[in-house]
Amino acid sequence: MASTDLDPLLLLRQSIASGSNIIPTTSADASSTDVPEASLSQATHLVFTHPARVAVPIDAPTRFVSNDKPVDVRSIYFAWLNREVAIPEYNASATKLNEELPGATHVHKFAFVERLELFTWLEGASEESEYIKPLAGDKDAAAAASAAAASAASKTAPVLASSRAGRGTLDPRLAQIYNGERRMGDRNTVLHGFKPADFSSVRKHAQQFMSRKPSPVAAAAIAAAAGLGNPSLVINQKPQRRPDPIIMLSPSASALLRMSNVKAFLEGGRYGPPDHSSSASMMHVSRVMKDIDPGRPMRFILVEGPEQFKPEYWNRVVAVFTTGQAWQFKNYRWSNSSDLFKHVLGIYLGWRGEQPPDSVRAFGHQVISTAVEKWHDPTRLGAESSRWRDREVVESIWKAIEVHMRHKGWRKDTAPTQI
Q1: Most buried residue among 194, 210, 291, 337 by CB atoms closer than 10 A?
Q2: How many CB atoms are closer than 10 A to CB 380?
């Protein structure tokens, strides 16, 4: 069986997609159909039943890396089982499990962004993550493609490349550039035959220049000049992934938007009442921000609190939904509302026809006030027809977020490092 077939992350993702059983057990025998199930504190293996029955050691490292250390299978599976619970409850459950585990064994406690990245990948909503290393086969394919491209580039300048016999191998990137050199001559060289000009000094400087890593913009320019369609032949550097912006919701029970209904509202354009029994603590929504990146949807992380926030995460916060209650900001980087809304966009959502609370109006222009029609029982006559304005409200909210993001420095491939 190929090594990729035994990759724990891939097996878990395939099992989730197919809805097949995953069994923690004390047995390494996956062939038996009546494998005894064990608790995560006692289990030694996870048995996957799809696409084939495979037993994987539960303490085996995975390709998910946190703080430069691979996370084990038990921690990954435990996080997935607790994907619907709030972060404090998840941390409490992880602490309890650690107390039950023998010796120095413990489960890793994922930060909220790590959890979101993990769940998004496991559910098949994304194909890559900054926390997940590619499979060995993916690396080999990338290396082969790079070698093939380099080989094709070297073949386009055979005379120049071969003329360096005894002086080392010519960089295929330089071969492309040298091949584009225009051979000049006068009437004497035309009559007596062509003798290549001495470009040794020029090439010496070119070699020194190429030894330095150019900026991505310069790399693209050099690639274009050399006739290369792929700038990676000029600079072997993986482009930095633009981080996902963060939108914070109010955890107040009086908030009209909570984790249970915000996705349907911001993505679907229709308001529905929140389900207060939901314990989800984060999720993501996607939106094309035409004035920032019209070519692809931008993914936004939604969270109700800053638990386990790293300091740099605050530079990614683009909006805060608020009900005007000061306690919401107690654990924020800027606990004073005046300071907070100088850095991020404030949004209040209320009922149409009702005045915002005095505390919200006191924020002034720092917080935009929006309103939706009051919710009525959908069985009530005319209830559905009153929801047509929801889309207008959603569009106005996204437009305000987009304007704010551009003002703070969000661009197609970059995010602000300080807000």
Answers
A1: 337
A2: 9
